[in-house]
Amino acid sequence: METKKKAILLFSGGLDSILAAELLKRIGVEVYCVTFVTPFFSPETALIMASTYGYPIEIMPLPEKRYMPLLFDPPHGFGRHRNPCIDCHALMVEMAGKLMEERAFDFLATGEVLDERPKSQNLEALMKVDKASGYAGMVLRPLSAKLLPPTVPEISGWIKRSQLLAIRGRSRKEQLRLAEAWGISLYPTPAGGCLLTDQNYSRKLSRLIEHLGEDVSFRHAELLKIGRHFWLPPKTHLIVGRNEGENCKLEGLRSEEDWLIYPQNNKGPLALLRHYGHFFKTTILVAAKIVARYCKRSDAEVILMLRPPLDEAFELAIIPLSQEAVSLFRLESAGRPQDLASFLRDEGSAVSLDKLRSSLR
Ligand code: SF4
Predict the structure, then answer these.
(1) Which ligand 1 atom is the nearest neighbour of the CA of 88?
(2) Which atom of ligand 1 is nearest to the CA of 195?
(3) CA 197 / ligand 1 centre spacing (Å)
(4) How many CB atoms lie within 10 A of CB 48?
(5) In the predicted model, what is the mean pLDDT of the chain?
(6) What's the confidence (pLDDT) of residue 42?
(7) Does ligand 1 have an atom closer than 6 angstroms to the CB of 196?
(8) Residue 60, burial from CB neighbour count under 10 angstroms (0-12, 13-18, 19+)
């Protein structure tokens, strides 16, 4: 009796990947799902769908050291935003391929449909993914396999090409028909799910990479999900919480190098501040004035607590910056004032630098 062939399926939890799993099962292949995690996408949907349909699944974190360089200079370029889809997919296939070898599985599979995404799922892109992953020929795409070059499982006779499908393009008509025919009634609506394809998130990430270059890390990627972000010359990043939940998250993400800033005498946000390189007191002053703008009584003097890294907290009474001036410092905006001391003089700051200096000891 022939032994069952075993495939590792890259599983996102979307309808295509559910159909790919179902089709493989129906033709006698044992399916083991893997899904991936980075700060830019989560495995949640995949886990829910795998448990709904009873597929075994494993989460594979993509290593920061391998993933971040793809956001600086991906060999195959970016999609519409800062999404390095071809290289990201290639890394996923490579990791799944290594698992396949370690666990003695026979081949890899994905739920990709030819031309469903014009840039990252056309024939050329799929072939580039396979080549860059080091597993060319080992990746079966059962939903479109009849339209693609034959793969090892077909050439080896483990699977007949006639058992596979020829779905192509963006219409999901055939997938919906199959789902109904196979009793698959629960599946997520097609949605982004990856922050790198989100315009706002991508823009913030790009700005941070412009400022910090290859020092941008998974931690920055996590921070960019929370709060309002500001960049103060020469190299200071300020993040202001937008609600109680974000304040708590920011506090939890504080590292030993971060300042905390929060209001002492009225309600308002908690902010996290990090200097990269030299420390400038004027920068702290501008940061405090930005935080004061988001306090409840932002029309009057606000008393803030400033908690420097590894040092005692101190109070600072400060007049908020105008909303207009605050927007100059948003991470996303260009053309912020470079000379903060003269900017503060022009703003008519009510707090003298001497006062801040004495507070800072
Ligand atoms: S959309 Fe995001 S997760 Fe998907 S391949 Fe592109 S970069 Fe990777």
Answers:
(1) 8
(2) 2
(3) 7
(4) 13
(5) 93
(6) 96
(7) yes
(8) middle
- Report d(CA 313, CA 24) in Å as an integer: 61
Each as own residue / partner, the long-range contacts of residues 172-181 (CB below 8 Å, 24 or more positions apart, any chain) are: 172/15, 175/15, 175/16, 175/19, 175/113, 175/143, 176/15, 178/19, 179/15, 179/18, 179/19
d(CA 90, CA 101): 16
Domain boundary assignment for the chain: 6-181, 226-360
Q: What is the pTM of this model?
A: 0.92
pLDDT digits (tens, 9 = 90+) for 115-162: 999 889 999 999 999 999 999 999 999 999 999 999 999 999 999 999
Question: pLDDT tens across 298-338, in order?
Answer: 678 899 999 999 888 999 999 999 999 999 999 998 888 88
Best of 16, 71, 88 to mutate for ligand 1, by most ligand atoms within 8 A of CB? 88
Tell me which residue has its CA closest to atom 6 in ligand 1: 85
Residue to mutate, 41, 42, 126, 198, ligand 1, most ligand atoms under 8 Å from C-beta: 41
pLDDT at 191: 72
Question: Measuring CA to CA, how many Å separate 88 from each of 96, 123, 294, 301?
Answer: 12, 17, 38, 49
Q: Which of 78, 46, 77 is nearest to 60 (CA)?
A: 46
pLDDT at 354 over 80: no
Is the model more confident about 16 or about 347? 16
Confidence (pLDDT) at 22:
98
Q: What would the CATH number be for the domain defined by 6-181?
A: 3.40.50.620
| Cα separation, 25 vs 5, whole angstroms | 10
